[in-house]
Description:
By secondary structure, this protein is an alpha/beta fold. The protein has one domain: Alpha/Beta hydrolase fold, catalytic domain (Rossmann fold, 3-Layer(aba) Sandwich). About 35% of the residues lie in helices and about 20% in strands. The strands form 3 sheets. Strands 1-2-4-3-5-6-10-12 form an 8-stranded mixed sheet, sandwiched between helices. It has a 3-stranded antiparallel sheet with strand order 7-9-8. A hairpin with a 2-residue loop joins strand 8 and strand 9 (about 195). It is globular. The two termini are about 25 Å apart.
Amino acid sequence: xxxxxxxxxxxxxxxxxxxxxxxxxxxxxxxPLLFLHGLxxxxxxxxxxxxxxxxxxxxxxxxxxxxxxxxxxxxxxxxADVTGDVAAVIEALVLDxxxxxxxxxxxxxxxxxxxxxxxxxxxLVLIDGGxxxxxxxxxxxxxxxxxxMRPPDIDGAPLDGFLRAMKSWPDIGDVWTEELQAMIMAGxxxxxxxxxxxxxxxxxxxxxxxxxxxxxxxxxxxIQCPVLMIPAIKAQDDPQRELWTRxxxxxxxxxxxxxxxxxxxxxxxxxxxxPIQRPKELAEAITDFAAKL
Length: 293
C-alpha cells in the first residue's frame, strides 16, 4: 500500500510563501521513478500501474500544484512554476536522477524539465503527452484550441448524477471499480453532495495556454537522456480526433529525428488515460525501457 506524504517547500510561491505538495510513495527496490499526472488529474491515476513497478523502482507519484491533495495557490501555472516544483521535490526527497514518467500535460512538464535541468533526469517516459505541438497543427488557432480544450463546467453538479455519467463512459465503465472511483474523485471537492473541480476552469485554461505556447520541437535537442514515447492509438469516427492522432504521430517523428536516444511503444486501441486502461502493458514498457538506462 502506498504511503501519503506532504512535502513543504518554502519560497515556491510569490513573496516567499510556502507551497505544500502531496505525493504517494509505494516504496520499492531500484532507481527512483517519479510519476507526473495530466491536467486536472491527480497522483492516484497511477494506482493501477505503480504497484507493478515496485520490484524494479522506488515509485513516487506527485500531485502537482492545484491538483489532488496539493495546495491550490492560483497564479499563472507557467512551466517555470511547475518544473520548478518538480525540481524542488527531486532535491528535497534526494532522488538520484529519477526516471520521470509524465501522462498528458505531465509529459509536457517532464520534457520542459529535462531540457532545462538535464542533471536531474535519468530518462523520460512520455505517455500520450509531451510530444504534440498544439499550435503547429493545421488550422489550429488559439481561439479554436481554447474552445476545444475547455473542460465542461460541472461545478455544483449532483454527485450521484456525475458518478452515473462516469460509469457510462465508453472504456471507463467496463473497468469501473471502487478504486477507480477514488482515483477520479481525488480530482474534485464534494460539498453538500455536489462536486466542484479542485482546479477551477480559469486555472485549467492557464495551463492549456502554457501548453499552446510550448514548443517541444525546440526542446528535443537540449534533452540528453533517453526518451520513451507511448502514444495511445484508438480508431475514431470523429474527423477531428483522427486529425489529432495524425498530428501526434507526426510530432513523434519530429522528436525522433532530434533526440539523441528514443524509443516508441504504441498502445493500440487505447484511450488517452493509458494508466487506467492498460496498466500492465504500461508497466512492462517502462520496465523494459529503464533496463537499458
